[in-house]
Write the structure tokens for this entry.
Amino acid sequence: MKFRKADPLMRDLRRVLPSDRVRVAPLERSIMGRDASIFEGGRAGPVCFPISTEEVQGCVDAARRHGRAVVPRGAGTGLAGGAVPLEEPVVVVATKMNRLLSVDADQRVAWVQPGMINLDLSRALAPYGLHFAPDPSSQQVCSLGGNVGTNAGGPHCLALGVTSAHVLAAEVVLMSGESVVLGDADGWTPGLDLRGAYVGSEGMLGITTAIAVRLTRNPPAVETLLLAFDSVDAAAQTVSAVIADGIVPAAIEMMDKNIIWAVENFVGAGFPTDAAAVVIVEVDGLPGGVAAEADRVAELAVEREGSVRRATDDEERALIWKGRKSAFGAIAQIKPNYYLHDTVVPRTRLAEVMNQVYEIVDEHDLQVMNVFHAGDGNLHPLLLYDAREPGIMERVHAAGSAIIEASLAVGGVLSGEHGIGIEKRDFMPLMFGEADLDAQARLRRAFDPEEMANPGKVLPTGASCAEVNALGKVPEGVWG
Amino acid sequence: MTAKTSLGIGPEEMASRSALGIDTEELASCVSCGLCLPHCPTFRVTGEEWASPRGRISAMRQVQDHGMAVDESFLASMDSCVQCRGCEPACPSGVPFGSMMEATQAELARRRRVDWRRWGFRVLGHRWLLNQLSRSLAVVQRLRLVPSKRLGLPKIPLVQERLRATGNDVWLFTGCVMDAWQRSTHASAKRVVEAAGAGVALPGPGAACCGALSLHAGLEDHAHALAARTMKALEGSVPILVDSAGCGAVLKEYGKHLGTPEAVAFSERVMDVHEWLAAQADQLPSVGERGQDVTVAIHDPCHLRHVQRAHQSVADVLSRYATVVTLDDEGLCCGAGGAYAAMQPELAASIRDRKLEAINRSGADIVASANPGCTIHLANAGVDVRHPLEIVDEAIDYDG
Ligand code: SF4
Ligand code: SF4
């Protein structure tokens, strides 16, 4: 569809925003059709860059008057296609709403705009000795609005909980155009926890315009250990042993052989490229306790024939984390595309499921890399492929389905932190019965009766939700 | 904020060819993770995807792979890129953005009917002509007949000191604009290198320009011709020291661009002057009375940090003579970018504003920058900025 100046939707949007903040060039609309997931076929309608709550309300009003859906977007680093625009909706981009509005260091609360970058917030809080705990791998670029939308996790959410535990309130523009505050920055509100329902709703209940985040004190002492093992089993057993020992580390991350190589090639942090798996364990707290816990972790690793390296300073620690956090991006050193899953399995079944993953991938003649939050059993198998190879997508999707089924079979769940978006939408019936899905759809309609907020995501469409056919039901042109 | 697109576009010509001539493997190598976004100055100041590395790659794919026409918005996306290559070290997949952008600019240059740069940059290769023009410009500036700041020009000296060769241990590459406008920097660099014990050879007019500006504007033929001349003028096997980060980056990439064994061997001899000095640390002279009492913030020029990845050597050398602080913006570009400040004044100024904030936060008295473009751009905003070796030159106790 072409947008002309005289287009009534455009005319209304330009009443709300200056024309350089409503963009309609075909090129811009097509590059906004993607996020960091594998979907390439999305296409935006007018792309709006509001800078205030009122402007967001104006965009929503204009879209509603013209029967157009609205899709919110932050930095576009989502891994499940949650921000991919389907059928040319109005795209509301938060990147220009990126200010820190207020900080109350005593109460440990800050109000931020949704486009603020996660790491920029923690940097701005450094003088107060505080930070925002959820630290997704993409934290140097991902936006807080997106963190709220996906209920994002991160390595350091093991001890402190994911985004929902760190969001006190959200100012939200509903599809009616009304602006409401869900939750309360000063404490808990009586009644239904609508804030809780909102965090993780992937843009389907409204558009976030401000967030009250809970701030976490920087730990006085930190120890980071890099453990290397000759087998995935030994690594997984060490993870279980650490938790069974009563230690709750700040983070436990695991990477397997292929990804270690790619990451080391990028950061040069001295990751052992001959190991079958490495585990990064971080413990924090008061100095005495931290030292004792780190010693114990090292002991448990050595008992399982692991080798242990401790970061000697902040620089070395930062380099180890940089390696872990650039893992997804490092993939193209091997293949130009990846399809990432995000299932969670019980920690005790970790080794078993990983071995199944290797088998599934072999069966489909693909390559896989695993890099994940081992402490909470959140797997991230990355299937590597070159989209230009004919017939490859069928194999990738078949292997993906098999991995999900294997994870669910041991009592796991579909997504740990990336959200459902488009990518995992059609797997929802594997996890939820019809009654569950219906309840979720009704909650959504309570906020947005017309289903105009980010349509086509998360919930499979009614009629087809009983059958699962990942390839068949995604809107045409969406699979990349 | 809007980007300016270059003059003289023929829309029919632009649209007539779809392929950009980018290497297909390179173009396929981006996985769209977005990790480069915060390291891109134009994304930082606009928050818009078309002004980000990922968006630019996506735009290149639209044109090259999907046959989308080259239009104004494509040109805006490409021409707004500073070519700072801050996205390269940030990319875990090693996407060679600079080379994709150079290929794109070369193709766009072929399609542009008129581009003043094609003629303007020719002057740079002619030392005599450039000096004459510079002298006239210096006079006109004194008469206040040109809006220097708006054009991104420095104050050009009326009289230039004459440099003399002192030996054959190393070449000092002098280049074009810097030699015409900031020769006193070469003089400082030369004194410091000599104080470290080397005799300095100076190239003849053949090495009048490295070709960086032409290359970034996509004028490949001109750039290659300048490269051939420069290589001839800097014969032999001794190191070629460069005190301009932008020139050094291009000289180091001659091997890649020309692909000949001679060019590869030439590039291997090229060193940023600080790299060479840092390697002779024990030869460096001691600090005079004036050293150490200034606090200097080091601004890492993009082409030293992101392309040559040799920025640490500046701190290694300078910290012997002054108290050095680093800026907290992870080497984000200052917006100078060769001719960028003149071509995209609005974006260049917004990018510079971020840099000014970082400089303010550092609390330094002066700023050191090893690239003439950055020096001019920052000085135009009122920053006291000097070449690191000017600071070293001043601090050295030559008699001691
Ligand atoms: S070269 Fe610089 S301006 Fe251009 S895309 Fe990369 S980071 Fe951005
Ligand atoms: S250029 Fe590199 S960092 Fe940027 S999106 Fe592409 S793969 Fe990611």
Observations:
- Residues 392-409 of chain A form the longest helix (18 residues).
- The mean pLDDT of chain A is 89.
